[in-house]
Amino acid sequence: MRLSETRMLATRMPETNPHALRARRPAVFIDKDGTLVEDVPYNVDPALVRFAPHALAGLALLARAGFALVVVTNQPGLALGRFSSDAFEQLRRALVRRVFDEAGVVLCGVHACPHAPHASGRPVCACRKPMPGLLREAALEHELDLTRSWMVGDILDDVEAGRRAGCRSVLLDVGNETLWEHGPLREPQHCVGDLLEAAHRIVESSVLLPLPLPRGEGGGQRGRPSPAMRAPACKPGPLDGLAACGSKAPSRPQLSPQRGEGAIPSSRTGEGAMHSSRTTEATA
Ligand SMILES: [Mg+2]
Ligand SMILES: [Zn+2]
């Protein structure tokens, strides 16, 4: 199901639009549980969310370097009935808001796989990490350049998902990986102790990017500036009024519950609410 969606989306990619091609940004895809926040199994209570050590500082550093920031998370609790899609949506909103309030960073999206794995642990869908579906979908949706992007996570399945998507990967070696099943796609470029250290490694390993230019300033870009080149690559979603993903807006976000975002599609839980105009839901 996920693969067919991805293929359908691929047919809509604006490959012939040179402005869209130039506008693609690198991203850092960030695992949620054990990487961005402390892992509390099946938790959807925003009050129990604790950011991992130095995680917010890491996000801020990456945002300043010009990376779009996208959370990608396996949430089998949805398929297993451990919590509802509405409950997860509340958590997602709280997470986006807290990242903005506490780090000044706008998350481009929170993409979640709602499927449970096979009894063997292997994915039965194309979006559960270590499969790369979430990253590929986010790249299409936010016009991200996977070849210049990174995946950061606390287990080797995260590493593999990033590598399968064509990204480089960083492993947070914080004791959460226990199986250590190695393979060609499960070798991270860096192995670090927290998200801030990961951010430093990523920035050091990447060409630094200029921050998005404000409207009316076209300097530094080759060719005629287009709206696609200057506009944020990601829709701010519930944080209406913010300038761009990964940058601090001058005012607090206006969280509006009247954007038609309350319902999570049964097939794609967690990320749909960031993007109320999604057309892929009907195909699920
Ligand atoms: Mg994790
Ligand atoms: Zn899935």
Q: What's a quick, concise take on this entry?
A:
With 284 residues, this protein is an alpha/beta fold. It has eight helices and eight strands, in the order ααβαβαβαβαββααββ.
Descriptive account of the structure:
The termini are close together. The N terminus and C terminus are likely disordered. The strands form two sheets. Strands 3-2-1-4-5-6 form a six-stranded parallel beta sheet, sandwiched between helices. The chain has a two-stranded antiparallel ribbon with strand order 7-8. Helix 1 packs parallel to helix 5 and helix 3 runs parallel beside helix 7. The protein has eight helices and eight strands; from the N terminus they run H-H-E-H-E-H-E-H-E-H-E-E-H-H-E-E. The chain has a single domain, classed as Rossmann fold (3-Layer(aba) Sandwich). Helix 4 links the parallel strand 2 and strand 3. The protein is α/β, with parallel strands linked by helices. It is 28% helix and 11% strand. The structure holds magnesium ion and zinc ion. The site of magnesium ion (MG) has 7 residues, from loops. Zinc ion binds next to loops.
